[in-house]
Design brief:
The complex is a heterodimer of chains A (298) and B (299). In chain A, helix 2 crosses helix 15. Chain A contains 15 helices and no strands. The longest helix of chain A is centred in the middle third of the chain and has 32 residues. Chain B is globular, with a radius of gyration of 24 Å. Chain B is 73% helix and 0% strand. The termini of chain B are close together. The relative contact order of chain B is 0.13. By secondary structure, chain B is mainly alpha-helical. Classes of the chains: A mainly alpha (298), B mainly alpha (299).
Chain lengths: 298, 299
């Protein structure tokens, strides 16, 4: 038991530690706040209204013009370059790109992971070993030949070409899901076998329904990475019809109306890349945060 | 994750037919988009391929040119500079943040907020900081001005550009790294801290005597993974400095990109990519060793 006198002592160390943590959180969040604040500021005010925490004349015009909901004259008057921008389309393209890769890749890798974990066939361990060795090849290395391949297939500026290299698999997802399937107790499947469930039905009706957690974890990881993709979609999907948000921002940045970039428009566009992430965090934050342990490293 | 148990099968089974069906999509993707391009990349590196005409074999000519290419050596140097700055600062900050979270709060909200910069595209991060650091209108320079300091063109000065890029990416990845380390710390049994506390050990002593030694396998793994990622920096530079000013941020990845898609020298770009692949291959091999080691230690 501590003496009563020490109870009154202020835990200075703890307060300092909390202060540091709060500073870290503020330093992390503030730039995003400033992004939204800039997006809500009229371009003409950028110089005169540069440091206030709230814009003096808040406006939605920057969002409306980058979403292509204003006329080009209005967009130019609000600080745009006058070039066609349609972030609504790019947002949809991003969802299509991200969705295709996430859903199909997770499904295919789950099937393969199950085969490697549970099915018996000659060459299983050899094939798995080769697959894992591919983790050592950095993406830039396969990127150049894959670009040549997609180009020669005539798949440039199509979703087929954009998702082709990653839609069927990544070695990591196969590895991750195999590890999970190995950890399921065999008794469950043995019981199902007695009920006459075969290999195919076993996977779909018994194993998959038990695996929602890990599937969601790997799906989320894949979704985040494909949401962040820039170089590959830039090379293979620059055109309007397939342009995703990250590529659109890169192009929009270069269409500066004058020497200064169109900051208010850029920040409105940038906000659109962050909003879906926030929605994801609100609904799946706990799972996302807790899925990050060192086995989940990519 | 569970250990790879070897269990005797109740009877000899051969699921060959179903198995190949299950594996078909992954194998197609693997052969067409991993194996084939890997071979092709090595082949390109021995040719003068420029995407317009068919490739001609030129032997090790590209590699010979590489050795004498000042820009290549500069790219390696600049990348090394970035990696050292980024990894050193990021690892120390992340370790500090992880300890704070571990000893203060289990809050999911705090962790979620720290994760946001990692969840958004690097393009967004690059643009965001380009705006924050803008020499005329940026928030940071306004603050510096208010403190009586002159405005700095963080991304336009050759001396400042690389440290600034390193700072931006450190901002983007520290929270993520901290969360990985925090997850490692959760595996350290709580009673160790309780008994150390009863013995009168302070926080610093607990950190150096309990947390750090037990975290070492996880820390080593996180370090290698961060290194591998750090060597591949591209997006942030592509939207901010584009390799400039005067090559100060032309990292190896960006140089490959320039050679391949601005100069259309696919063969030469492939040779640089081979060098980078060897470098990263060694690091990944280390990573996989550590992954196994950390399993047996903490699983």
């Amino acid at each position: 038991m501590k003496a009563p006198t020490t109870r009154a002592r202020v835990p200075l160390g703890r307060i300092a530690a909390w202060a540091v943590l709060v500073v870290a959180v503020v330093a992390t969040v503030f730039p995003f706040y400033w992004m939204v604040r800039t997006a809500l500021t009229p371009a003409a005010d950028l110089y005169s209204d540069a440091t206030g925490l709230l814009p003096e004349h808040p406006t939605m015009i920057n969002f409306l013009r980058v979403l292509g909901l204003t006329s080009r004259q209005e967009a130019r008057a609000a600080g745009g370059s006058g070039a066609k921008v349609d972030f609504l389309r790019y947002l949809l393209n991003s969802f299509v790109y991200c969705g295709l890769i996430t859903v199909i890749q997770t499904q295919c890798c789950a099937m393969a992971g199950y085969a490697f974990a549970r099915l018996r066939f000659p060459g299983r361990d050899l094939v798995f070993g080769v697959l894992i060795a591919a983790l050592m090849v950095p993406p830039i290395f396969t990127l150049l030949p894959n670009f040549v391949l997609v180009k020669s297939l005539g798949w440039l500026n199509s979703f087929a070409g954009m998702v082709a290299p990653s839609v069927l698999m990544t070695p990591f997802a196969v590895f991750f899901l195999r590890q999970f399937f190995l950890s399921i107790p065999r008794e469950i499947e043995e019981a199902a076998t007695l009920d006459g469930v075969g290999g195919w039905g076993m996977f779909w009706r018994v194993v998959l329904p038990m695996s929602r957690g890990p599937l969601l974890t790997i799906g989320l990881t894949t979704a985040v990475w494909s949401w962040k993709d820039f170089l590959w979609p830039l090379l293979t999907g620059r055109e309007e019809e397939t342009r995703v948000l990250t590529v659109a921002l890169g192009i929009f940045q270069q269409q500066a109306p004058n020497v200064q970039p169109d900051w208010t428009g850029l920040m409105a566009g940038s906000t659109l890349t962050v909003l879906p992430v926030l929605v994801l965090l609100v609904f799946l934050g706990r799972r996302l945060v807790e899925s990050l342990n060192f086995t989940g490293i990519k | 994750m569970g250990a790879n148990r070897v269990v005797a099968a109740p009877r000899r089974r051969d699921d060959r037919a179903v198995a190949w069906l299950f594996l078909a999509p992954v194998l197609v993707g693997f052969v067409v988009f991993y194996v084939y391009p890997t071979g092709l990349g090595i082949y390109y590196s021995l040719t003068d391929y420029g995407m317009l005409a068919a490739p001609n074999l030129v032997g090790v000519e590209n590699y010979r040119e590489l050795v004498e290419d000042d820009k290549f050596w500069n790219a390696l140097k600049v990348t090394g500079y970035y990696v050292v700055l980024n990894i050193a600062v990021q690892t120390v900050l992340a370790l500090g943040l992880a300890v704070l979270m571990h000893r203060l709060t289990q809050s999911v909200a705090v962790r979620a907020m720290l994760l946001v910069p990692w969840l958004v595209p690097n393009v967004t991060v690059g643009l965001l900081w380009m705006w924050m650091l803008d020499a005329n209108l940026g928030f940071v320079n306004h603050v510096l001005g208010a403190l009586g300091l002159g405005a700095t063109g963080f991304l336009t000065s050759p001396a400042w550009a690389m440290p600034t890029i390193a700072g931006i990416n450190t901002w983007a990845y520290t929270g993520y790294t901290a969360l990985l380390l925090y997850a490692g710390m959760l595996q350290v049994p709580r009673y160790l801290y309780e008994s150390a506390s009863l013995d009168g050990a302070g926080e610093w002593r607990m950190f150096t005597r309990i947390t750090l030694p037990l975290l070492r396998p996880v820390l080593a793994l996180v370090l290698v993974v961060s290194l591998i990622g750090s060597f591949q920096i591209f997006d942030t530079i592509a939207v901010t400095t584009k390799g400039g000013p005067v090559g100060a941020t032309r990292v190896i990845y960006f140089y490959i990109y320039e050679q391949a898609f601005a100069n259309f020298r696919m063969g030469y770009a492939s040779a640089i990519a081979v060098v980078l692949a060897v470098l990263l291959g060694v690091l990944t091999a280390v990573q996989m060793r550590l992954l196994r080691a950390s399993r047996s230690d903490l699983a």
